[in-house]
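User: Can you predict the 3D structure for this chain?
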Amino acid sequence: MRMSQLFYYPQKEMPKDVEAISHMLMLKSCMIERVASGIYNFLPLGFRVLKKIEDIIRREMLAIGAQEVLLPALHPSELWKMTGRWDEYGEELFKLTDRHNRMMCLGPTHEEIITALVKAKINSYRQLPFMLFQIQTKFRDEPRPRFGIIRSREFIMKDLYSFHADEESLNEGYYKVYQAYKKIFDAIGLDYKIVEAESGPIGGDVSHEFVIIAESGEDEIAYCSSCSYSATTEKAEYKSVIVEDNEELLPIEKVYTPGLKSVEEVSNYLNVPPSKLIKTIMIKADGRDIALLVRGDSEVNLKKIEKLLGVKNVSLIEDSETSVPLGFVGPVGLGGIEIIADPEIKGIKNGVVGANEKDHHLMNVNIGRDFEPTYFLPIRKAKRGDLCPRCGGELIISKGIEAGHIFKLGTKYSEPMGAVFQTATGQLKPIIMGCYGIGVSRLVAASIEQNNDKNGIIWPRNIAPYEVYILPTDWTNKTIRDFAEGLYDRLLQKGYEVLLDDRDERAGVKFMDADLLGIPLRITIGNKFIKSGIVELKNRRRSDILEVSAEEAIDRLEEVF
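Assistant: Here is the predicted structure, written as structure tokens:
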């Protein structure tokens, strides 16, 4: 491709909502263009990267025996109502009505569609197991689209579904996909962690996330510094350590804390460490009000609450739903409400809590003397410095981007939808399923998050839009131009993907664009070529430059790669 013909119109001014480096660089390098909030055009450079990632994924899916299909993006509501997800999925589900007044949705995921397909075609254990996958557009009405294509309302996803007669077969299929995912992420050149995860609205008992380590990520993961244990902070376990304060109990005291609601504000104002504060978080769990107590330096884990209490709908109570302003709620005198406390607060002596009165807190509050929890449960999220539940090593907390998620669904969808098979003994049993997703478009951004510098993108070779960038410093010079043209033709003949900068532009502009686009290898043809037949080879990831004779330039490319 020649730069003079490339659809390349770099964006210089960034929108105010640009937060992630990948979002900024993709707009700046003309890889994507915003259509509306969370909706983007993929332009030629970005689309080439996207297709290369798709090709890597497709290759590994086919290698494990999966067969490719293409399912509809438009789903009839009847299928979603069979599984109960029409109402359960929430406001992220795009719902619409057709001209015949039939309710439809735009598919955020395809469990119902694929299960209906398999129900119609499979009836015997002899037809199992098998795997079907697709690469297709999904839709989710995100409440807050952000970070460009990392969290958008329309995105490309690969989803694979496996179908089995028994748990042993499911485990074998799950392991195959697990290993294939590792090959995919390795081939793309990503730094990632595989972590135990909550299944969320997809369902199932066992799931793992493939998380790309990145500061812009919205996921938090915990992993051990000594062993292989890793999980999302929602799923992560830890060894609980209760360290008791060695203090004499002091009389309770009400203090004025005007407008101070956050742990940081109250801690600074009263000159006490956050670990001395007892946070009271009010929630509704399947309709009942509950007060949760954790230390001020900890966060409540609502996913754990769901599991520990065996409830489905857990939500934070809003200010409008309580007579006491949130931030000033405390357990002392909180009558008629169930109180669940994290065991760690047992160690707090003379703690600080909300006074159940606006602009006031209580100091020197103690469990047993001033209030008593209904019971204790480990309800906080894992945090940095916790002890690993397996080996006792230290847990490290990192931010990351969820790019892949695999689930053992069991019969969550086949049972309500009647997808059954006949066993060898003539019994009818629901088909056992697995589900495996990769955020294809998200991987483009995730790679940029891990591969960039102050000048632009640094693409791994496997997914770069082009492999080689030929940079003639003066296109008007016939000697430089003729050699650049000949080199371009020879590289194309050898199978390289080449971008020739044939623009009549200043050399400085070309160097800036070469760095911004992140093409792995740059060949510069300039004054040194005119004087002594020397061209410069540079790997985008390195600062050094290799000077070689024009005749050996092609032979030395792989060395520089």
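Residues 466-560 form a domain with the Rossmann fold fold (CATH 3.40.50.800). The chain has a mean pLDDT of 92.
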